């Protein structure tokens, strides 16, 4: 079942790797976002513009507003001023302004919004991030104490966020699109009871939502698809779809924001032989120390093809850094590269598939993939888009190293690995000067 689900996610990427914003054609289209009671059915970012200020709704800040929250919980829409009546423009507080961005929280009335007239990319992104904060009051309606856990996309998995006594309440500060699991304590210790997505301000009753753990609507599809399975599998697939939809938005948003650093965006070279021999010895001598790797995110199908990791010791990390930094500095023409991450040696197994993605823009800018080892006959080329969107397949042999602009260029290995084993090391750098992307 989970293997079929991953194939579905590949199809989503191929057909939906673009920002999910919508142009409204009329005032009636706008009113439909609120329904008959004039309350927002989900959170809304609304861009209102005139012809001379159309650039304000062409910013990546606006178009990528869904990058941290899928469209199931947030609508990003824009509308031309000329299709709105003078009374509606007055009601929205726009008046004679050339353009504006408005935010409505879920369940807010049509007159209850926040507004900004600032269309600077950085300032607008920070405003959107601030508007995406939510404060929820969780009310425990179970007949026993419960714990609630933030479902982190990364290796941390579930983060224990607190306990709520029977009948008690707690306020949490979160962001639109964050996913939480609720589990029992005491006699119910660890049992999954329900889950919820932070999608509004206000109170949320925690109870046995009818059908939640038996059937649910799959957020990965545009049509209603009921999936029935055990609770943990249902939550896993819900989380993977939620997180991957966020990645799809990042794929659409980030490449246009990040400046190009090199002519081609990637190049293949060879690791110096002495360094490669040392790395190979470390890998071969450490087979008994490698461990099954924890969850690394929705792009890698670890639940189908487990990955393993052999952690590098400080000496090996220094050796790799001292070897690769000069090589990447010369390639990128940046003398101020700062190493931000060196993963251990990750071993992929037969059937592994890595969906197309971009890396973290604040830390993973100029990067290297080193192929340490692969089983005989293994076939698993790196797929990467160049600066013009052209797709390239780059085969690698042990000792090969690929330099690439990992925050800008979409990359992955979507075709399943043919072969028993494929082991890589990833090293990431960012410029020490002039790389102000912590706001993204």
Automatic annotation (TrEMBL):
Residues 1-19 form the signal peptide. Keywords: Signal. This is Fe2OG dioxygenase domain-containing protein.
């Amino acid at each position: 079942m989970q293997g079929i689900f991953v194939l579905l996610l590949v199809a989503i990427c191929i057909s939906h790797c673009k920002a999910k914003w919508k142009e409204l054609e009329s005032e009636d289209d706008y009113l439909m976002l609120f329904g008959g009671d004039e309350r927002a059915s989900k959170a809304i970012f609304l861009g209102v513009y005139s012809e001379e200020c159309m650039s304000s709704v062409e910013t990546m800040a606006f178009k990528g507003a869904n990058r941290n929250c899928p469209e199931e919980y947030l609508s990003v829409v824009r509308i031309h001023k000329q299709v709105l009546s003078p009374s509606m423009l007055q009601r929205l507080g726009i008046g004679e302004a050339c353009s504006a961005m408005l935010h409505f929280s879920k369940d807010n009335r049509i007159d209850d919004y926040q507004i900004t007239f600032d269309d600077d990319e950085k300032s607008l992104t920070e405003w959107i991030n601030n508007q995406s904060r939510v404060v929820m009051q969780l009310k425990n309606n179970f007949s026993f104490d419960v714990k609630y856990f933030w479902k982190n996309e990364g290796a941390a998995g579930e983060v224990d966020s607190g306990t709520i006594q029977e009948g008690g309440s707690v306020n949490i500060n979160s962001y639109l699109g964050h996913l939480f699991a609720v589990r029992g304590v005491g006699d119910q210790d660890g049992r999954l009871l329900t889950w919820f997505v932070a999608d509004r301000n206000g109170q949320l009753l925690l109870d046995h939502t009818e059908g939640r753990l038996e059937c649910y609507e799959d957020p990965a599809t545009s049509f209603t698809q009921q999936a029935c399975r055990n609770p943990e599998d249902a939550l896993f697939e819900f989380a993977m779809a939620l997180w991957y939809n966020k990645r799809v938005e990042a794929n659409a948003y980030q490449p246009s924001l990040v400046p190009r650093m090199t002519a081609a965006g990637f190049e293949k070279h060879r690791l110096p032989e002495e360094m490669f021999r040392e790395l190979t010895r470390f890998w071969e001598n450490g087979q008994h120390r490698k461990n099954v790797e924890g969850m690394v995110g929705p792009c890698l199908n670890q639940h189908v093809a487990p990955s393993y990791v052999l952690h590098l010791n400080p000496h090996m990390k220094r050796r790799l850094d001292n070897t690769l930094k000069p090589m990447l500095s010369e390639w990128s023409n940046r003398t101020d590269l700062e190493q931000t991450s060196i993963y251990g040696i990750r071993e992929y197994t037969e059937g592994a598939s890595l969906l197309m993605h971009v890396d973290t823009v604040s830390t993973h800018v100029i990067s290297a993939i080193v192929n340490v080892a692969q089983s005989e006959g293994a076939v698993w080329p790196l797929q990467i888009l160049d600066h013009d969107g052209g797709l390239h397949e780059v085969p690698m042999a042990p000792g090969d190293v690929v330099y690439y602009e990992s925050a800008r260029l979409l990359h992955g290995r979507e075709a399943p690995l043919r072969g028993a084993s494929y082991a890589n090391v990833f090293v990431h750098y960012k410029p020490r000067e002039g790389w102000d992307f912590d706001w993204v």
